[in-house]
Amino acid sequence: MEVTVSKWTPKHDGNLVGFGDVIVNNTVEIRGCALRKGKEGNLWVSVPSRKYDKDGESKWIGHVGFPSNDHYRAFQEEAIKALTAQDNDQRFSNDDDMPF
C-alpha cells in the first residue's frame, strides 16, 4: 500500500500532532486525517469520523472503513510514515538527548 500526503497542517495540542490529507495508492484521497501520539509515544492515524449516540452513550464511527485488520494495519503503518515525514518536529525522536 502506498500512502502519500497532499496537505499537512501541524497542530501540536495534547495528543494531536497535526492534520493531513492522505492519498492511498494514487486513487483515493482521505481528507482530514489526524496524526496522534499516545502517552507511550505510539503514533496512530484517525480518519475523519462522526459522533452518534447509542443507548445514551456517545460513540464515533469513521467515514472510512477497511476490509480487514491487515488492511487497517497496513494503512496505519504507511500513513504514519508519510505524515511524520511531513512534520519536522522532534516529538518523533526517541532520543532523550538535549537538542543543544
For the sheet with most strands, the description reads: 4 strands, antiparallel
- Distance between the ends: 38 Å
Based on Cα principal axes, name the global outline: globular
| Stretches with pLDDT under 50, minimum 5 residues | 89-100
Rg, Å, rounded: 15 Å
The helix count comes to 1
Strand order of the largest sheet: 1-2-3-4
Give me some keywords for this one:
1 helix; two-stranded antiparallel sheet; four-stranded antiparallel β-sheet; 100 residues; disordered C terminus; alpha+beta; 6 strands
Explain what this protein looks like in three dimensions.
By secondary structure, this protein is α+β, with helices and mostly antiparallel strands. It has one helix at residues 69-86, and strands spanning 3-13, 16-24, 28-37, 43-46, 49-54, 57-62. Strands 1-2-3-4 form a four-stranded antiparallel sheet. A two-stranded antiparallel sheet has the order 5-6. Strand 5 and strand 6 (57-62) form a beta hairpin. It is globular and about 40 Å long. 12% of the residues are buried. Residues 89-100 have low confidence and may be disordered.
